[in-house]
Amino acid sequence: MQNVLLQYGALGVFVLVLLAAVKVIFDKLSTAYENEKTRADRLEEQIRSLNETMRTDYMTTLNVASQAIVDANRAVADALSVVRRGQ
């Protein structure tokens, strides 16, 4: 009888050690998951900020550049018409 109790006692201790190991691993994985989630949220916010910069600053610059090209094309067309009239 005492031998049977020792066997179950050893098995119980082994199960407790395994449960403790599983808990430690789970805690580490949970922490790693939360860290990665925080990192992803931070990077997502950076991307959102860069997209906003693209929309505001770069689009304004492109509009100004497009207008400059239109003006240059008009100037070239005017110059060509003056040259053609002179011929």
Q: How many runs of DSSP E, i.e. beta strands?
A: 0
The main β sheet shows up as: none
Radius of gyration: 37 Å
Low-confidence residue ranges = none
Strand content: under 5%
| Terminal-residue CA separation | 124 Å
The shape is rod-shaped
What portion of residues is helical?
Answer: over 70%
Q: Which series of helices and strands comes N to C?
A: H
How would you characterize this protein structure?
This protein is mostly helical and 87 residues long. The chain has one helix spanning 2-86. The radius of gyration is 37 Å and the shape is rod-shaped. The model has no long low-confidence stretch (mean pLDDT 89).
What is shown here, in short?
The protein has 87 residues and is an all-alpha fold.
Characteristic key phrases:
mainly alpha; rod-shaped; 1 helix; 87 residues
Task: Write the topology of this structure.
Blueprint lengths: L1 H85 L1
